[in-house]
């Protein structure tokens, strides 16, 4: 099968022919139709984080496609089912976190396109218990980004505890942020979106943002404090330390700062302000299968729609270049079924 492989960090990916994965108990073989390109894939290929991915690696954790083979013990899926293979490739199912329904926190988890091969390939092997079915009326290319960008921002908004009528800020209007705006609006929240450049800010407005701030023109925290008196919650998806610092200062007293983006840096948090203003700073990592089912329903009901551009697998190195330069509007989705 054709796949894009990382052999060494910070080197271009290579398009190669490799063996199709073989089934093991509890697994299914998914013929990939499309796979979104998440900024996490770029972090993986650069070896940015303290925990490194396996090498060689087939990246991709927004892979969607059709079940074409299944192990004998898999009874709840049928050949032909349309599924997605998310970042949470598998979890142990019996630790404290799994038992509480927080499987995204399982210390034994495997991650698609990181600790195991992912969706930048014609076929991928998935744990049958962790794939999620795609609603019939959501096309593959529009479903793909929901398997990470969608579920992550949907979950982050839930974690923020924001309620209808509250103001939230979405920092970074990229793959994650453009979906965050839509989920926030669908949840009845008021949205201020922060990014740079007319194109991204126009996209944010089109998707329903009530206010936009260009961080290269205005200080976001100061603007948000002056115009809104601070936001109740902020979801920071930007790959930038300064965006995190600014996010902290954008929330009002009692506000919640949800960290989602993963720049490989530390964030300075002032103890005095955190304590006196009762600010919460909380991390949020992808979502559970139930979060994924819910977030896909928003798309099935037409409340959320990923803005996508499709490209062939062979374009992956140019896509990464565009991503590094913040030149992508919405999500780029690699197609594999041609
Ligand atoms: P992306 O490249 O599509 O979008 C990032 C956006 O941030 C771009 O639009 C860019 O212009 C904007 N940006 C950069 N600096 C900014 C600043 N100072 N202020 C405001 N905006 C700024 O990336 P993505 O795929 O949306 O991923 C974003 C981050 O989220 C990555 O670090 C990724 O690894 C991480 N991520 C985390 C989770 C999780 O579960 N927590 C899941 C998926 C991705
Ligand atoms: Zn991702
Ligand atoms: Zn577990």
UniProtKB/TrEMBL annotation:
This protein's name: alcohol dehydrogenase
SMART domains (UniProt xref): PKS_ER (SM00829)
NCBIfam families the UniProt entry points to: PRK09422.1 (NF006940)
Recorded superkingdom: Bacteria
Cofactor(s) demanded: Zn(2+)
Pfam families registered for this protein in UniProt: ADH_N (PF08240), ADH_zinc_N (PF00107)
Record key words, sorted: Metal-binding, Oxidoreductase, Zinc
Family note: Belongs to the zinc-containing alcohol dehydrogenase family.
């Amino acid at each position: 099968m054709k796949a894009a492989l990382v052999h060494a960090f910070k080197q271009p990916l290579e398009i190669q022919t490799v063996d199709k994965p073989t089934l093991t108990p509890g697994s299914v073989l998914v013929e990939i139709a499309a796979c979104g390109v998440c900024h996490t894939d770029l972090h993986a290929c650069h070896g940015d984080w303290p925990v490194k991915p396996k090498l060689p690696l087939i990246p991709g954790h927004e892979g969607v496609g059709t079940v074409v083979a299944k192990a004998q013990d898999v009874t709840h899926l049928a050949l032909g089912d349309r599924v997605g293979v998310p970042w949470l490739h598998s979890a142990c199912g019996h630790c404290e976190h799994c038992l509480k329904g927080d499987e995204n926190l399982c210390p034994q988890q495997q991650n698609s396109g990181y600790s195991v091969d992912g969706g930048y390939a014609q076929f991928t092997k998935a744990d049958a218990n962790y794939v999620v079915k795609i609603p019939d009326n959501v096309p593959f290319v529009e479903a793909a980004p929901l398997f990470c960008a969608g579920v992550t921002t949907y979950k982050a908004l839930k974690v923020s505890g924001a309620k209808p009528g509250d103001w939230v800020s979405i920092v970074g209007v990229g793959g994650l942020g453009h979906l965050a705006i839509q989920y926030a609006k669908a949840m009845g929240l008021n949205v201020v979106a922060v990014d740079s450049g007319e194109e991204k800010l126009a996209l944010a407005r089109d998707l329903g943002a009530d206010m936009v701030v260009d961080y290269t023109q205005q200080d976001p925290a100061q603007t948000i404090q002056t115009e809104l008196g601070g936001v109740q919650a902020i979801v920071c998806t930007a790959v930038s330390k300064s965006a995190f610092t600014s996010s902290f200062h954008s929330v009002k007293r009692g506000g919640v700062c949800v960290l989602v983006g993963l720049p490989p840096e530390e964030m300075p948090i002032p103890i005095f302000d955190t304590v006196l203003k009762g600010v919460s700073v909380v991390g949020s990592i992808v979502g559970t299968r139930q979060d994924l089912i819910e977030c896909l329903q928003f798309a099935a009901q037409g409340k959320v729609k990923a803005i996508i551009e499709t490209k062939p697998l062979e374009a992956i190195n140019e896509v990464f270049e565009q991503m590094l330069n913040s030149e992508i509007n919405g999500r780029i989705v690699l197609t594999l079924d041609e």
